[in-house]
C-alpha cells in the first residue's frame, strides 16, 4: 500500500517543493532587499564605501534572520505536529463517539452516501494508529514533517539569500561613486530578477513571461521606494 | 453538507492562520532585519543619522519586497490552482480509467478494504465537479484559495514589517551617538522579540517560554553577526 498517488505532475511537484522552495524564498528576498537598500542609500550618500558596509551588514542580518527563521519554522512545525498527534490519540481513546462523527463528516464532505460513510468509518476506526494518521492528514491537514528538514531549510535559505544579495551589491565594490554604481546595480539586478522570476514561474506552473515581469517589477518598486524615502529623510 | 469538520482547536487554528500568520511573518522579519542592520552599522559608523537613513531605506525596501512578495505568492497560488483544476477536468474527461485508479489508491492509502475502495470510487465518480474537487484537495493537496487573500496578505505583511522595524530604529532618531543608541535599541528590541516570540509560540502550540527565547536569540545572533561583519569590512 502506497500513501502517494502516482502521477507525473505530482511527482515533479513534490520533488521540486523541497530544496527549490527554500532557494526561491532566500534568493527572492536576497535579490530584492539588499538591492533596494543599496539603491536607497545611493539616493542619500555619494560614497560607495558606506553602502558596501550597509549592504554587507544587511546580507549578514538577512541571511541569518531568514535562515534561522526557516530553522525555527521547521522546528515549530515538528512540535505542532507532535502536540496535535498526542491530542488526536487522546481523543480517539476518550472521545471515540466524537471522532467517529468527525470521520463520518469527512466522508460526507467528499460525497459518499450515508451507507458508505458508516462502513468506511467502521473500517478506519479498527486500527488506532491508522485512524490517527488519517485524522492528522485529512481532518487537520497536517503532513508528518521530515526531522532533517529544519536544518536543511536554514542552510538553503541563508545561502540563497547571500548569493542573491551579492549581485546588487557587487558594483559598489568596484565603483566608488554611488550614483554610477547604482546604474550598474539596477541593470544587473533587474536582469537577474527577470531570469529568476522566469524559472520560479516555470516551477510553479505560472506563465513564465508574466511571472518574470511581476518579480522584476516588485524589485524595481522596492528599490524606487527606498531611494525616494531615503532621499526624503536625508534633507 | 459541510466541507469543514467541526472541532474546537481546528476552528481556532483556521481563524488564527489568516491575518495573524501574515502579521507574524511581517513582524518577525521587521523586528529582526532592521535591528541587525542598525546594529551592524553602529559597529562601523559613529553618527546615528546615516543609520536612520539606512534603516528607513531598509524598512521601505523590506516592507514592499515582503508585502508584494506576499501578494505575488497569493496570485501564484490562484494561478497554480486554476491550471491544476483545468488539468484534472481534462483527465476526468479523457483519462477516466487512470483517475478511477488514483481515486481507489487514495481509499487504499487510508486503509479501506478492496470492496469499499470500489464502492466509494464509484459514488464519487458520479459527479464530475465533486470528483475534481476531491482530487484537487486530497490527491494534489490544494485548497481553493481566497481571491481577496493576496491583497490582504500584502497589506498585513507590509504594515507588520513597518511596525516591527520602527522599534529597533527609534532610539537612533533621538540619540545622535550610534554606540549609545545601539544599547537602547538592543534592550528594547530584545524585549519586543521575547514578547513577540511568546505570543507567536502560544499561537502555534509551542512552549511559549522556549519559543520566546529562541526568537530572541535569533534576533541577537543576526545583530551580532551584522555588527561583526560590518566592523570587519570597515577596517
Question: Care to describe what's here?
Answer:
The first copy, chain A, is built from nine helices and no strands. Helices cover 84% and strands 0% of the residues of chain A. At the A-B interface, helix 1, helix 2, helix 3, helix 4 and helix 5 of A face helix 1, helix 2, helix 3, helix 4 and helix 5 of B.
Gist?
With 235 residues, the first copy, chain A, is mostly helical. Helix content of chain A is 84%, strand content 0%.
Biggest pleated-sheet summary of chain A: none
**Which geometry of chain A do the CA atoms define?**
elongated
Query: Largest interface, and how many residues on either side?
Result: A-B, 89 and 89 residues
Taken in chain order, the helices and strands of chain A follow as HHHHHHHHH
Spatial gap, N to C terminus of chain A? 69 Å
Range of strand content of chain A: under 5%
Count the helices of chain A. How many? 9
What fraction, in percent, of the residue positions of chain A are helical? over 70%
Helix/strand layout:
The structure is a homodimer of 235-residue chains.
Chain A (H helix, E strand, L loop, with lengths): L7 H9 L2 H24 L5 H47 L1 H14 L4 H11 L3 H12 L9 H26 L3 H27 L3 H27 L1
Helix pairs in contact in A: 2-3, 2-7, 2-8, 2-9, 3-4, 3-6, 3-7, 4-5, 7-8, 8-9
Entry keywords:
elongated; homodimer; mainly alpha; 235 residues; 0% strand
Amino acid at each position: 500500500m502506497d500513501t502517494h498517488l502516482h502521477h507525473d505532475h505530482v511527482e515533479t511537484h513534490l520533488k521540486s517543493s523541497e530544496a527549490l522552495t527554500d532557494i526561491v524564498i532566500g534568493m527572492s528576498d536576497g535579490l530584492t532587499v539588499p538591492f533596494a537598500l543599496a539603491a536607497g542609500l545611493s539616493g542619500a550618500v555619494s560614497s560607495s564605501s558606506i553602502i558596501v558596509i550597509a549592504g554587507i551588514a544587511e546580507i549578514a542580518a538577512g541571511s541569518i534572520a531568514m535562515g534561522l527563521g526557516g530553522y525555527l519554522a521547521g522546528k515549530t512545525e515538528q512540535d505542532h505536529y507532535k502536540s496535535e498527534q498526542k491530542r488526536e490519540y487522546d481523543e480517539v481513546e476518550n472521545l471515540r463517539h466524537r471522532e467517529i462523527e468527525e470521520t463520518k463528516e469527512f466522508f460526507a464532505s467528499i460525497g459518499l452516501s450515508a451507507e458508505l460513510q458508516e462502513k468506511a468509518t467502521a473500517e478506519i476506526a479498527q486500527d488506532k494508529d491508522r485512524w490517527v494518521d488519517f485524522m492528522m492528514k485529512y481532518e487537520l491537514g497536517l503532513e508528518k514533517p521530515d526531522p532533517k528538514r529544519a536544518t536543511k531549510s536554514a542552510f538553503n535559505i541563508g545561502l540563497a539569500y547571500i548569493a542573491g544579495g551579492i549581485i546588487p551589491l557587487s558594483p559598489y565594490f568596484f565603483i566608488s561613486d554611488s550614483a554610477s554604481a547604482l546604474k550598474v546595480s539596477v541593470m544587473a539586478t533587474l536582469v537577474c530578477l527577470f531570469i529568476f522570476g522566469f524559472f520560479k514561474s516555470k516551477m510553479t506552473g505560472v506563465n513564465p513571461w508574466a511571472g518574470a515581469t511581476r518579480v522584476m517589477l516588485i524589485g524595481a518598486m522596492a528599490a524606487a521606494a527606498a531611494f525616494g524615502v531615503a532621499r526624503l529623510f536625508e534633507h
